[in-house]
Amino acid sequence: GVSSNNAIEKVKFINAKPVYFPPMERKWGNDLAASTAWKTAAIRDRDGSLGAGPDSYVLINDGVYDSIAADAQACEIKPTWNAALCKGDVGRLNIGGAPRAAGAGPGAPAPAARAGGAPAQAPVVLSRNGRDYNVTGTNVRAGTEIKVTTERPSVSLSLSELDAGSWVIFQLPGFTTAASGAAQDSLDALRKASATSYYKDKDALWVKVVSPDNGTFGLGGGASLQVSR
After folding, report:
1. H or E element: which one contains 177?
2. Can you give the pTM of this predicted structure?
3. 108: alpha, beta or left, given left = phi > 0 and alpha = psi -120 to 50?
């Protein structure tokens, strides 16, 4: 269920809405009750049956689980569908990393313990177009820039299901190093780079993750980059 390549084609609707995402009910819980598949619901319209042209995407956009991939420039918001109808290449973003050590940083409290004694991960906030999203797994649209704010000491940024050459740029305040990629000497050079790269300014690390392929049948594939403070 967690894929941006759930697809339809050659469909017709009679006396029905083409798409409708109703309010989520807990009884539908999956993914160990995280309901990730629902919160990031996506349908790929291969032939334009829904009206936005071939290889457009329908993304959940219901005011509760709005997609970070949706915006006014590339998407038509469909309030009666609880969705956004978007053009462009859509894939998956997953963020992982190590928990912040207890007491790390000035005045930092020890993280709360999970069951079994493992410390909880510090939250990750994604910011785009003036909105914040508290997620670690989400749909993402190629060609966008996203700010990533977290107290974690290291973070892995993983893209999948994007076409070869598609990219996303991340701004990470407080981070300083990237484990891989090509160093660039300016933000302009980073934006022009054709391969996974990074640039460090005085306040943040900027990284551009470029997808090499979208995997077999559009599932998997992709690229990953580890960054640290």
Report:
1. strand 177-178
2. 0.82
3. beta
